[in-house]
Amino acid sequence: MGLHIEGNNIWVNYGKIQALKKLNFIIEDGDYIGIIGPNGGGKSTMMKTILGLIKPNNGEISYCGTTLKKSKIRMGYVPQISDINRQFPISVEDVVLTGRMQKKIIPFFNYSEEDYKMVDDVLKTVGLQALRTRQINELSGGEFQKMIIARALTMKPDILFLDEPTAMVDVMSQRQIFSLIKKLSTDMTIVLITHHVQMISKHVKKLIYLDRNIIAEGDPNQVYQYAYIKPVHHKIKSRLNGGGKNNV
Question: Rounded CA gap, 49 and 9, in Å?
Fold first, then answer.
């Protein structure tokens, strides 16, 4: 049975703040999904809820017909770069190695030869093998982001979640990272949050516009038109016709 994750009527609140409401979604094996939407629209909350990091107030998520723990789905997660301390004194190799640590605390834990071989492989995949001994505070934004992707890949994920992987990096690095993710999508399911819609619209199989719930989903070009182009044209038309309260 292939990967199948389904959310039904998901609600998430932060106190009195409603982050998600009436959210329904399906993620299938081999999907490459882009999630877009306004700031505060619940994109990161949706991702963390699927990952099991946030418990919904209502609704449930099914993972291949069972719970996340019982499904044994391997999930990789690349958080926002702003959530990570870049000044911590540690090398690229050591950061990537932590992706191989066991969830349970094991006394006198040592990494195996297989662990080091996996680190070699993923560093080559992301193009950082020459920087393995470099301290992370010496990395550029793009290099740092590739390192975090490499760490997520060490667990051989069935599905990879990336929360704005091109935030705070230069244009060239953005293109390199999106090219890398496109390559990875041939081997695993990808769910990606981004504001760089035009860069990924030709690559993703499905685009979701989220604003607390799913406003539009499906063909990337159609969703992009619905979310960004049509509203702008509508405002321009309204102004030309003398409509609205704030005519220019």
Answer: 13
Mean pLDDT by 10 residues, the chain (248 residues): 92 95 97 95 97 97 95 94 82 94 69 93 97 95 96 96 93 94 96 89 91 93 82 46 44
Note the helical H segments in 72-112: 92-97
63: which strand partners? Answer: 5, 66
4-82+157-240: CATH architecture = 3-Layer(aba) Sandwich (3.40)
pTM strictly above 0.70: yes
Alpha carbon distances (Å) from 193 to 103, 113, 219, 234, 246: 26, 34, 16, 26, 32
Is residue 95 within 8 A of residue 151, CB to CB? The reply is yes
**What's the pLDDT at 111?**
86
* Contact assessment for residue 203 and residue 183, using Cβ atoms and an 8 Å cutoff: no
**Is the separation of the CB atoms in 51 and 5 below 8 Å?**
no
Q: Which residues contact 194 (CB under 8 A, 6 or more apart)?
A: 34, 35, 36, 164, 165, 166, 200
SS3 state at 86: coil
Token output for 208: 């979701």
Sheet strand arrangement including 75-78: 75-78, 159-163, 189-193, 32-36, 206-211, 213-218
Amino acid at 71: S
Distance CA 219, CA 216 (A): 10
Domain boundaries, the chain: 4-82+157-240
> How far is residue 19's CA from residue 11's CA, in Å, rounded to a whole number?
8
Dist CA 153 CA 162 (whole Å) = 12
